[in-house]
Amino acid sequence: MDSDYPLEQTPARRRRNKVREAILAAAERMFAKEGESGLSIRRLAEEIDYSPSAIYKYFGSKEELLEELKDSFFERLLDQVDRVSAASRDFHDRARACVTTYVSTATARPHHYAAAFSSVPTPEELAVRQHLSWEDFIATSKGQAFKILVDLVEEGQALGVFDTALDPLKAAKSIWASCHGLALLMIHMPILPDVQPCPTQPDRDFVAYHADIVMRGLAVPAETPHKNGQDS
Amino acid sequence: MDSDYPLEQTPARRRRNKVREAILAAAERMFAKEGESGLSIRRLAEEIDYSPSAIYKYFGSKEELLEELKDSFFERLLDQVDRVSAASRDFHDRARACVTTYVSTATARPHHYAAAFSSVPTPEELAVRQHLSWEDFIATSKGQAFKILVDLVEEGQALGVFDTALDPLKAAKSIWASCHGLALLMIHMPILPDVQPCPTQPDRDFVAYHADIVMRGLAVPAETPHKNGQDS
DNA sequence: TTCAAAAAGTGAACAGTGTTCACAAAAATA
DNA sequence: TATTTTTGTGAACACTGTTCACTTTTTGAA
User: Fold this and answer.
1) Closest to A135 measured CA to CA, from A145, A126, A144
2) Which of B192, B206, B212 sits opposite A230 (nearest CB)?
3) Which structural domains are found in chain B, ordered by start?
4) d(Cα A171, Cα A61) in Å, to the nearest integer?
5) pLDDT digits (tens, 9 = 90+) for B22-78
6) Side-chain-facing half-sphere of A17: CA atoms under 13 Å
7) Based on CB atoms within 10 Å of each CB, which residue in A14, A173, A231, B189 is the most buried?
């Protein structure tokens, strides 16, 4: 097998990886510009001067190739958020930075972000995934994103900023929904009024605005208990 | 032209509409079950015992047919929200009902809701839509949905429930983002932990939970002004 | 009622798509 | 050097949306 190249890559494998990367690079370019419908195996093969069937020596299907594009994007997204999260010291700043970075990275590659959440599971798939352990979930990149949020909520609660009556899991889910929705709304409905338009980066300031509102929703409530049936 | 049938439909038109409705009904069924990729003109034609080319006597393209499915769904969605909005008297109840109805209706037809927000506009389209008047926008069904939210925010502010320092447009956008995100998260990521699982309708109670958090984010802030740089 | 015009419906074809598979060329291994 | 494995290809299959010349049916008026 790996006779002479004990741990390194044999020239054959390096060459193979080169072709694989070329495929991915071309696919990335086409997908970023025109989305899934614009990424065709045949056009892709044309672009890199190979036959369409050659692609299948590197990827089992178009689906598999797309999966790799989406996964690497989401990991990049996660990296960005992790980075800014480590940068800020103040809790409010860090939380805000996480949200704005998440949304900015998402909207910077609209097709990638939208595609990362595009599959609608069938009832059968749903039944299978129902029996999924928490460990298996946070092993996925989506699960890691969720865990970041849970940690953030717990930290906010420890600091007395967030309401300790809230379940961290629920709160995290709520935050994610709010961020996810804003990102997709900006991607799919850029018509929505941009109250303080900034020509170079429209909606940029609104993201921080939204982030503040979301955080206010988790803050310790005012003195009036009212009839807020929170968390039974 | 309409010689004998002054305002009513001529038998020919009624028959034509019948076929048109049959096409739409079959398309609706297929799309609801399998989504856009599962809806093929040829299978559709097969289903209603017509030739594929016959479809094009009723719809200019598959895109046009899909557009009609999506539009009628979103109008139904809007109707549902309008109905429950008129039903509740108490402001909190009404706001909560709007959110839960919106999300429930969306998740009840996942493919429809997701498809209603699926198009990613190209830079050219984006430039065109930038010059869109507010009147033209609220004439669309999406615009009406947005207007409902703006009105709701203003009412909440008038009642002293919501912070009057908030721009109603921004607040409405923030609410919509949070609802939109929750609906899509439930559609595309049903794996997310369902803390209090309800076997018959999972996630049902979480929607109300999320709605309360969202409303808390718009509530009048606590006495501590802190350094919240809200609305400049 | 007859007749031209309009509408409805069809089969065949075009240009695409993802994917498979037998086969040829090249490279790596023995 | 001979053999096996890898890499790449062209042709074909089974689809897709769409068009168009064509026939059949229906309609409205002379």
Assistant:
1) A144
2) B212
3) 1-60 (1.10.10.60), 70-218 (1.10.357.10)
4) 38
5) 999 999 999 999 999 999 999 999 999 999 999 999 999 999 999 999 999 999 999
6) 6
7) A173
CB contact under 8 Å between B173 and A121, yes or no, is no
**Of all protein residues, which has its CA closest to the C1' atom of C27?**
A12
Please provide the DSSP assignment of chain A as one string.
---S-SSS--HHHHHHHHHHHHHHHHHHHHHHHHHHHH--HHHHHHHTT--HHHHTTT-S-HHHHHHHHHHHHHHHHHHHHHHHHHH--SHHHHHHHHHHHHHHHHHHSHHHHHHHT-----HHHHHHHHT--HHHHHHSHHHHHHHHHHHHHHHHHHTTSB-TTS-HHHHHHHHHHHHHHHHHHHHH-TTS--SS--SSSTTHHHHHHHHHHHHHHHBPPPS--TT--TT-
In angstroms, rounded to a whole number, what is the distance separating the alpha carbons of residues B220 and B30? 47
What is the nearest nucleotide to B1, using C1' and CA?
A: D28
- Considering chain B, what is the average pLDDT of its residues? 90
| CA dist B42 → B15, B39, B52, B64 (Å) | 22, 9, 5, 16
User: What pTM does this model have?
Assistant: 0.92
Q: A177 CA to D23 C1', in Å?
A: 57
**Which parts of chain B register pLDDT below 70?**
1-9, 196-199, 223-232
Instruction: Please give the structure tokens belonging to residue B104.
Output: 């429930």
CB contact under 8 A, A210 and B177: yes
Note the CA–C1' distance, A56 to D7, in angstroms.
11
Quote the crossing angle between the two packed helices B141-158 and B91-108, to the nearest 10°: 160
Closest of B223, B218, B117, B101 to residue B164, by C-alpha: B218
- Please give the structure tokens belonging to residue B15: 């028959």
The CA-CA-CA angle for residues B44, B46, B51, to 5°, reads: 95
| CA of residue A1 to C1' of nucleotide D4, angstroms | 13
Q: How many residues does chain B have?
A: 232
Is residue B173 less than 8 Å (CB to CB) from chain A?
Answer: yes
CB-based contact A69:A112 (threshold 8 Å): yes
Nearest-angstrom CA–CA distance, B148 and B94: 12
Task: Please give the pLDDT value at position A134.
Answer: 86
Q: Using the CA of B56, which nucleotide's C1' is the nearest one?
A: D18
What would the two tokens of residue B1 be? Answer: 């032209």
Q: Rounded to whole angstroms, how far apart are CA atoms A191 and A194?
A: 8
Contact flag, residue B41 CB and nucleic strand D, below 7 A? yes
